[in-house]
Amino acid sequence: MIRNMTPEDYDEVYALWRSCPEMELNNLDDSRQGVLRFLARNPETVFVAEEEGRVAGVLLAGSDGRRGYIYHAGVRPEFRGRGIGTALVEAALEKLRALGITKVGLLVFRNNDAGSRFWEARGFAAREDLAYRSCVLREMTRIQF
Ligand SMILES: CC(C)(COP(=O)(O)OP(=O)(O)OC[C@H]1O[C@@H](n2cnc3c(N)ncnc32)[C@H](O)[C@@H]1OP(=O)(O)O)[C@@H](O)C(=O)NCCC(=O)NCCS
What we know:
There is one protein chain. Helix content is 30%, strand content 25%. By secondary structure, the chain is of the alpha+beta class. It has one domain: Aminopeptidase (3-Layer(aba) Sandwich). Strand 4 and strand 5 form a beta hairpin.
């Protein structure tokens, strides 16, 4: 079952992320406060997949009125390959489209080949003409596992 994430899901969602070495977590954005802040701003576009009463997958999607962005899509290893990731992406894209968003972006580490294949097959083309740049406004600590 795909449904919107609620604050009560945070612990299970965080445990799921921790089990995904492909993902980079940090002490601010991925803290309970950081994730609940994102959820409060994007309550309709953050989804979890629930299996047997537990969180089996999660995808954070949000928008700023212009672009949609997807972060931290993950499915528990034992539930992968069953279409849960695809269902989460479809739920997010459908809602973002309904909100009037015209384009959705995301970042994948260059060494995450499986992740890149997953996104490519779902219509997320790589932009070879662009380079990602960012400016840190508040120092954060990368969480290593
Ligand atoms: C990427 C990810 C979210 C996909 O979730 P999923 O529920 O396995 O996705 P789906 O079942 O909808 O599709 C997975 C694809 O891999 C294939 N696959 C088959 N068995 C698989 C398995 N055991 N594990 C993963 N993928 C498998 C599926 O057939 C499908 O192929 P397709 O693209 O040709 O349709 C999941 O693998 C994951 O959590 N990866 C680690 C975190 C990550 O890399 N996130 C994305 C980068 S931000």
